[in-house]
Amino acid sequence: MMFKSLRIPAVRSGKATALVLAVAAVVGASAAMAYPARSIEVEYFSDATYNDPVGGRGITCGGNQWRWGETTEYAISYSEPCG
Q1: C-alpha span between 79 and 81 (Å, rounded)
Q2: Which string of b and e fits 15-37 if b means at least 16 CB within 10 Å?
Q3: Is 41 helix (H, G, I), strand (E, B) or coil?
Q4: pTM of whole model > 0.70?
């Protein structure tokens, strides 16, 4: 089941995503890497219309992290359980 939350202020979702990505980076440095329990994607938009994406970041169930563009206060986050 996919969880989708709309129009989450980037301050709140950005902190949570940053924490998940930081923890994943530390865990990823070890030989016995534990994969995340959920995949997370955050998409950032230029304004409150949520029509023009300007950036994104996330982590996959396999532990791969990615990011592009810029972060803004207008964000939509998606999360899906792994496994």
Answers
A1: 7
A2: eebeebbeebeeeeeeeeeeebe
A3: strand
A4: no
Q: What pLDDT digit, counting tens, does each position of 12-66 carry? A: 555 656 555 665 555 555 445 688 899 999 999 999 999 999 999 999 999 999 9
CA triple 44-35-1, angle to 5 deg: 60
Residues 6+ apart with CB under 8 A from 4: 76, 77, 78, 79
Task: State how far the alpha carbon of 67 is from the alpha carbons of 1, 79, 83, in Å.
Answer: 24, 16, 23
**Pick from 4-8, 33-37, 62-66, 70-74: least confident:** 4-8
Q: Decide if 14 contacts 37 (C-beta within 8 A).
A: no
Distance of alpha carbon 12 from alpha carbon 75, whole angstroms: 10
